[in-house]
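To whoever is on call:

I kicked off a structure prediction for a single chain this morning and the downstream step that reads the tokens threw a length-mismatch warning. I double-checked the sequence; it's 383 residues and nothing unusual in it as far as I can see. Pasting both halves so you can look.
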Amino acid sequence: MKYRRLSILFFLIMFVIGTDTFLVSPLLPTLTNYYKVSTSISGLMVSSYAIGYMITALIVGPISDKYNRKKILTVGLIFFALATASCGLANTFLIMLITRFIAGIAAATAGPQVWASIPLLFPKEKVVKVMGYATAGLAIAQIIGVPLGSFLATWSWRFPFFFVGGIALGLTGLIIVYLPNLNTTEKKVNSINIYRDFFKNKSALKLLFSYLLFQTANFCAFSFIGTWFSKSYSLPVASIGGFILIIGAGQFIGSLFGSKLVELLTLPKAFMYEFILFILGYIILPFSSSVIIATIILAMIYFIGGAIFPLFMSTLQAQTPNSRGTMSSLTNASMYLGEAIGGVFGGILIKNFTGFYGIATFTVIGVSLAMLLYARQGYFRRQ
């Protein structure tokens, strides 16, 4: 009962943080008009959150390895709830940027604690499964974050921020009641020493770089699926949203059932086969003769993506048992950095190559290099 309760709680925390990440996108046209700013700078409302997250992740990681994770998660969620709700009160563009930046800081404080806490709270045989539940929270947020923001904004653009902030505050109460104390040791280690020891761990650095390569390739593709559907299949925005929901559903299902593959094949073999299937999916994707076929292939790819993400998180956590918070923060920062880099390359490739060929090639190369780094560590041979 305790494990189930904590699994649900971690799922909900990642769902709320993920929803806030995707919440602003459907509101951009409304907010651009409300603040009377140009479209070219409206994207700062999205990037300010990501910048706050990346900067804070580098600082909070070592801190969470020195102090009680429960307290850090609680404080992070409280500030996350207040900052997100404050976005709904922002009457100027500058205040919105500040509140989004603070929300990113708070998310970077709270989110990594979930990944770092799972190996400490659950038996080893349950870790991958619970990682999958947390991943499912992010997947669901990715699926419904945009439509949820649009639906709630029918009352007011402010209401989505109040709604998410209120849910986060409620989850804070549940964390206080149900999450046990973690890292209660009195021994304190200097943050600089934590990073110094971390960067001496060559295996951890190689796997972290592998994760960065994977996410760069992954976001290069995901960020421009809608553009590809519009250009190659002449789909309207509403139809594109429906197909994206189907693709996201594949990721959600994969995150829930990926642990079954691990039980069947062992973790190293499951990881290797999922890498291979992910790559093969992108090799055949650009040749899709219709949007239906493309959507089916992408749903299968993101089913594998949902299954492989918990394996990344569990293997990276296993590399640094004494600095799980630092590793969690760095993996999250790597994801946002990969999203930024992938977006830059994807924009160039979608413009200069026919269909999805350029982006698919880039993704295949990036994921193949990530797989090679794991293989060179002998990881796929481990039992």
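Update from on-call: the warning came from a stale cache, not from the record. Cleared it. Sanity check on the structure: The two ends are 30 Å apart (CA to CA).
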